[in-house]
Amino acid sequence: MHGRGMAGATFMRFAARTVLSAPACKAVKIRGYHRQYLTIFRSNTSTINGGRTAFLLTLPVLSYLGVEAYRTVQSATVVHALEKAEEAVEQADYLYSCGETEKLYQLLLQYKDSDDAEFLWRLARASRDLSLLAHIAADEKKRLTFEAFEYAKKALEKNEACFAAHKWYAVCLSDIGDYEGVKVKIGNSYIIKEHLQRAIELNPKDATSIHILGYWCFAFAELAWYQRKVAAMIFASPPTATYEEALAFFLKAEEVDPNFYSKNLLMLGKSYMSLKDQGNAVLWLRKARDYPPHTEEDKEVHKEALDLLKKLSA
């Protein structure tokens, strides 16, 4: 985890796990994580029909065969465009699965003016992932963080029914809070929660959205008394949550997609620790410790789980 504040990149880094696709998508497993590979793109019928009508009005005479030939050519052009879009999405998801962050960013940057939310939320994710790379300078990190938010915002504007757009809007909004002060960060927390809830409503099978909402609850349940006091001074009713609520979301995420994410296993252990349930805490911390490490974050989880197990056995 990158420790940049309770509701910042530390709060959301686990969201970089990609999403389980909606029913119209085909999902496959790569290195133990769900990767979205194919999205069904639908043509804009009004645009196509409008274009055909305008074309026909310019011709005084066009035989039936001529019309059909034109329709066939136009249809082939549309299909080709859709196939190219699908190929671009597949290529983007492949690069994401391989951890090729910079190549992915350059690929998706070609679609920054797209009206398709499927490109835009992926670009938001890629911009954010790029901002988290160790070699990225502070000023570039900030630029990419705000850029990611703009792409996520645009994705949401283009398709309010896209669960991934809601998810990445919440993640990116959390990130920019690190640059806008405590008051803005706390205020944004309400909005973040709303979009996570909407993402889950749109796709109840996305374990990572459920996990993020669990982490949101855990973060606010964990606030020290003096932090609560500061929050109460800024807001009459600051966000609140309990460890029980956090635990319920972590368990639900595990139910939806068992063993999908090392961090979820760790948070289950930490939630049970906070609730003084040592037996279940040990059970889940051992699972987190034994999770096959694929990423640097998995290695960090392994270390933290080991440390907590030692603490419990002391």
From TrEMBL:
An example Gene Ontology CC term for this record: spindle microtubule
Entries under Pfam families matching the protein: RMD1-3 (PF21033)
For this UniProt entry, the molecular function terms from Gene Ontology, in alphabetical order, are: microtubule binding
Compartments, record wording: Cytoplasm, Cytoskeleton
Is Signal set as a keyword in this record?
A: yes
Signal peptide region: 1-21
Q: Name the protein family.
A: Belongs to the RMDN family.
Oligomer and partners? Interacts with microtubules.
- The molecule here is called Regulator of microtubule dynamics protein 1
Q: What is the lineage of its organism?
A: Eukaryota, Metazoa, Chordata, Craniata, Vertebrata
